[in-house]
Design a protein that fits this description.
Helix content is about 25%, strand content about 10%. The chain is α+β, with helices and mostly antiparallel strands. Strands 1, 2, 3 and 4 form a 4-stranded mixed sheet that branches. α2 runs parallel beside α3 (about 110-120).
Length: about 130
């Protein structure tokens, strides 16, 4: 319907890139932000996808949607991989640990564990 919403990716916690306290921001946080923006800038047309929610709260205290983000037509860099869960992608590529401070994923726990193991074993991103 054209509504613009902010989202908080469930079980992902990347390094800061736009924190008001500039000392909190890191170069890797900026790299992560730039990478996701590049993926989302799909120059050959609109990205299509959907959001998925866990049971329970749909918004955090800042009003952001708490969700998993899926691409049905991934960006060209990721073509041929089918539907992509952005949350799992970020963990698998080492941009974030599997963030369980507030509990674990009820829907994708095993996949998050495998994704983080892959990133650790291959020394990707934060594990490099």
């Amino acid at each position: 319907d054209g509504t613009v919403e902010k989202v908080r990716l469930l079980y992902v916690n990347t390094e800061e890139s736009v924190h008001p306290d500039k000392k909190q921001n890191t170069e890797f946080g900026k790299e992560t932000s730039d990478h996701v923006k590049e993926l989302l800038s799909h120059k050959s047309g609109a990205l299509s996808g959907f959001l998925e929610f866990e049971d329970g709260r749909r918004r955090d205290k800042y009003g952001r949607l708490l969700c998993y983000v899926f691409w049905q037509n991934p960006p060209p860099q990721l073509s041929g991989t089918g539907v992509i869960n952005l949350n799992l992608y970020l963990v698998r590529q080492g941009y974030s640990p599997y963030y369980t401070r507030y509990g674990h994923s009820r829907k994708y726990h095993d996949e998050f564990k495998k994704a983080e193991k892959h990133a650790r074993d291959n020394r990707l991103g934060i594990w490099g």
